[in-house]
Fold each of these.
Amino acid sequence: MTHPPHTSTPSLDVLLARFPVERPPSSSADAAVTIVLREGLSELEVLLIERASHPDDPASGQVALPGGHVSKDDGNLVQTALRELEEEVGLSRQDLADDPRYVSTVHARRFGLDVGVFVARLGSEGRTPAPRSPSEVARVFWLPRSSLETTRQVERETSVGTLPVHATVHDGHVLWGFTRRVLRDFFDLPHEKEAFGSVFAPKASPPS
């Protein structure tokens, strides 16, 4: 287990100010996810979901950010992010302090998707997020930002078989791969290179 030295976290206002409010066209990515942040009791927390288990789903049981595929009716990528946020955890634009801010578009090699990443603050009177469809989302939880600083080796199915990968473990939830990389990049934590190469082998079925 690796314990890097604790790094100070900028305030939520400073983190959000790095990204202007933009609305990229839907054609700029295949899917969108949202980093929803709140001020916890002692530090910033990130909203995460644990996907429901399905034998044929490559994302089955994985911890992820709320999000999903672009729909032809979305109009733009931020509308995809907002629609998926409401469909998966029951949060609408009215539950957020302001419009989602576009962070970047990241390629998820395992699924062969370009994913638009947004960030938003939970409003002071925002509803409590909860799974909207148990067949898609099994659990919703808040991850303390400091948890991302600790790395554990956890065995997972990779492009070259079952191998130990870098992971964050919090209250039994295992965060690894694409979502963990996105969050560590967002919080400017050091890059970690897997010794065996890419974890993200192309799959036939992308995440819902």
Note: The CA atoms of residues 185 and 191 lie 8 Å apart.
Amino acid sequence: MTKSTHQILYIILFVLLAVLYFIQFSSSSNTENIPTVEKELAIQPLNEGGLNIAYVNSDTVSKYYEFAKKIQKTLTTKRSEAEGQIKSKYFAYESLVQEFEKASPIMGDREKMEKAQKIRLLEQEIMQVEQQLSEQVSRQELELTQSYIVKTNDYMQEIGKTLGYDYVMSYRVGGAMLYANERHDITNEIIKLLNERYESSK
């Protein structure tokens, strides 16, 4: 090949690369505002007449689903309130014990017995309050969790039918599903639709 032929080939190659570069970036700028899930759904259309299965990352849903965030916030508040009540009881108990220890050398036997009895009663009270609050918080957690599961399941029944899937699986690290093809991941779309259903049901 002559030097001029090499130059022509280099020019053609350069032009082709420039065209490919332009096509790549112009197409990505047009879809830049489209959520990842929608792009994947467009690439991976539903299989007409076949079995349509997708999956959702449960950990991501818990992080961005407004109803889940509300439940978590409520539970955190209730636990903090219970812990606050117990701490105040412990503070009163510790103060009483310190007072008893300081004054013990100059107390009479009867006064010592009365103070010791008061401390024992406060100990029992703290144990009872701790148990009651623990049971109360556990009961509230169970009720809130059941409410979350039932409502979210109802939303998912509607969403699954709307999107046309036969099955929408739940995936999380360490869960039963060991591998899932990312092309079938509709987590972002599900979060968007779950939040819409939740907001409309308020």
Note: Residues 109-163 form the longest helix (55 residues).
Amino acid sequence: MTSDTSSPLSDNLEAILKPTGGHKEHILKTHSQPKGKYCLWHRNGEPTHWDNFGLMGECRDCLAEIQRGRCTVDVCNFELDTYWTVRNFWLKVNIKGPDECWPWMGATRRNNQETVAYMPSPFHSAKTQSASRVAFWLSRGYTGKYRVFHQEGCDVLCCNPLHLRIKELASVPQPTEITTINLSYGNIFDRAKATVQEE
């Protein structure tokens, strides 16, 4: 790895992913009374993706999934209360073939050189992010304040997860395929009933 891609995140990925100070036991004890910050990938009733963040707000549970190659566009990965936000984001992306750029069709600024997508985050005061950052969060994992870049020669409006990079994760293999593309949550009412019954 060259010095320009070296960072605490890429150099110490294993240490960052390792729970510290009885983290797992702490989560199991306190999960019945949830508090603190949640990652987008948190599921009710599961002791992951909450209060497990690094210095840049990256979710350590997501980093573990990114390291294993997760790359999926599936609204069913998220809770019902965030479903509409996730689905509305992907509906503004022109999803094409896996090797093509996926242009953002939503709001832009600075003569179409910057994208603007609605997506609240526990570590950003603004409710909007760049579309490429949101696409990375929703397909690969929540990486907090780390900046997302496009691969060389990519369109500035592109949201194809296979074209997106985080320099600090240069040591992690880039996924070669998107395992799922699913923008349907199925019967929302049945899912809502199942969620209530589980709780």
Note: The chain has one domain: 3-198.
